[in-house]
Specification:
Distance between the termini: 72 Å
CATH topology of the largest domain: Jelly Rolls
Largest sheet: 5 strands, antiparallel
CATH class of the largest domain: Mainly Beta
Shape: elongated
CATH architecture of the largest domain: Sandwich
Number of strands: 17
Helix content: under 10%
Radius of gyration: 28 Å
Oligomer: single chain
Structural class: mainly beta
Strand order of the largest sheet: 10-11-16-13-14
Order of helices and strands: HEEEEEEEEEEEEEEEEE
Number of helices: 1
Length: 256
């Protein structure tokens, strides 16, 4: 493998360079086996942008610890074209291996590996624009043998009237069956649902949100993933006004 600087010099650069104005370190190599990957000396908590590029093959970049088989980070095509680029924050200071291979093992040739120190992530936004209180309507029921069936699964339907500019949120919980929530127009319950969900509510519970194009009557259907399921459930429904963006003055028309 051909390197533009020695491994010792590379380790010193990465270990002691100042994070704020660190220069990118670039290495050149030739693809043969993964055992010839580049050893990097990285610092815990520091974000690094690691890139691999080649004009000869489609690069795949993987990050390992020496002697370990677990892949800590991997990328195929996040760089330009078929080049690789990933952001990696080491959990511990020490040596890491940047392994460059060809996608599907197709190709050999020269590549360039670049390691840059990245700035810290921005602080997350902690203050909400405003606070809204949701009023939930709660329906407790059971799927049992007397309920209507569709394609072998029992269901109960609940009517909800939505005003214009509102979204519907439905949460469906059950410890007896794998819950599925579906939303229909009230006059089109025999067709395909407008929205549905299986497991977004955690475990086997459902959570679905729906913003209609127009006001009207809609139905929330409580059903199960597996046919023939029965048991108790709890359906919680709320409506939220959809915030309207202020009109952009640049979009306003000019009266003649």
């Amino acid at each position: 493998m051909r390197l533009s600087i020695s491994l010792a010099a590379m380790a010193a650069c990465l270990a002691f360079a100042a994070p704020a104005h660190a220069q990118a370190q670039t290495y050149r190599g030739s693809l043969t086996l993964c055992q010839n990957g580049q050893t990097l000396q990285l610092r815990a908590g520091q974000r690094y942008v690691i890139s691999a590029s080649s004009d000869s093959f489609d690069t795949v970049l993987r990050i390992f610890r020496p002697g370990a088989s677990d892949v800590l980070a991997m990328d195929d095509d996040s760089g330009d074209g078929t080049n690789s680029r990933l952001t990696f924050t080491p959990p511990e200071s020490g040596r890491y291996i940047a392994c460059v291979v060809a996608y599907a093992g197709a190709g050999t040739g020269d590549y360039t590996l670049t390691v840059e120190q990245a700035g810290p992530l921005p602080r997350p936004i902690a203050r909400p624009t405003r606070t809204e209180t949701a009023n939930w309507q709660v329906f407790e029921g059971n799927l049992d043998e007397g309920d209507a069936e569709e394609n072998g699964t029992r269901f109960d339907d609940y009517l909800v009237t939505l005003p214009a500019g509102h979204r519907l949120i439905a949460s469906l919980d059950s410890t007896d069956f794998d819950a599925v929530a579906k939303i229909y127009r009230a006059d089109q319950r025999a067709g395909e649902p407008l929205a549905s969900d299986d497991d977004s509510g955690g475990e086997l519970n459902a959570l679905v949100a729906f913003a209609p194009d127009e006001a009207g009557d809609y139905v929330v259907r409580v059903t199960s993933y597996a046919g023939g399921s029965t048991g108790a459930y709890r359906l919680s429904v709320t409506q939220q006004a959809i915030p309207q963006r202020p009109a952009d003055s640049s979009d306003a028309g000019i009266a003649e």
